[in-house]
Amino acid sequence: EAGESEFDLPFTRLSVDNGRKNFTVRLFSNEGGYQKVISGGELRCRDPRSGQIEEGVTSGEDNSLDAPRLHRSGCGGSSGGQKQSSSMVQHHAASNGSTSAEQDGLFPAKVTKKGNYGYEVEWADGATIIYSLLAIAKAAGGKLP
After folding, report:
1. What is the pLDDT of residue 14?
2. Which of 143, 133, 135, 141 is nearest to 11 (CA)?
3. In this predicted structure, what is the pLDDT of residue 30?
4. Among 44, 85, 86, 93, which residue's Cβ finds the most Cβ atoms within 10 Å?
5. CA nearest 119: which of 99, 102, 139, 103?
6. If we measure between CA atoms, which residue out of 109, 14, 19, 110 comes closest to residue 63?
7. Is 139 helix (H, G, I), strand (E, B) or coil?
8. Could you read off the pLDDT of 82-131 as tens digits, one per residue?
9. How does residue 63 score in pLDDT terms, banded at 50, 70 and 90?
10. What are the Cα distances from residue 15, in Å, to 5, 78, 118, 121?
11. Distance (Å) of CA 132 to CA 100, 104, 106, 136
């Protein structure tokens, strides 16, 4: 466990394990590192820019192609003139409520690093979403200090 450690957001790493149908998030700080395995549903139910769990969406919800939230293409960068969020996160506990049946529609997935912004996830259902490093860290249990 990482306790109340603060992690450097730019060093966040995301990898996919299609065999186990999950993702591994690695967070790093001056004190060391922290690794957390998260389900596809835990990542998919989050806003790709902010990392907040989307209103009315849970990681246990069916991820059908008919759902409008699955048709977005990504979240882009920050708007000009807006204050940038902190680049540090703190660890806290996160829940994981996904079942293997829900994961079948999401995997296999493909992950591609997108510069210093985040990672693009190509889901098996055809959706392609770019998640910010902040969103990925929050999915792994991170929170802003």
Report:
1. 97
2. 133
3. 83
4. 44
5. 139
6. 109
7. helix
8. 444 444 444 443 444 445 555 678 999 999 999 999 999 999 999 999 99
9. very low
10. 22, 24, 12, 10
11. 25, 24, 19, 6
Residues in the chain: 145
> Of 139, 113, 132, whose CA–CA distance to 41 is shortest?
139
CA pseudo-torsion sign 50, 55, 61, 67: negative
Which residues, 6 or more positions from 118, have their beta carbon under 8 angstroms from its beta carbon?
A: 48, 130, 131, 132, 133, 135, 136
Give how far the C-alpha of residue 47 lies from the chain's centroid of Cα atoms, to the nearest Å.
9
For residues 108 and 124, is the Cβ–Cβ distance under 8 A?
Answer: yes
pTM as predicted: 0.69
Tokens of 45: 């139910």
- The DSSP annotation for 125-137 comes to TS-EEEEEHHHHH
**At CA 72, angle to CA 69 and CA 73, rounded to 5?**
155
User: CA-CA distance, 71 to 69, in Å (whole number)?
Assistant: 6
Q: Which two tokens stand for residue 47?
A: 């806003």
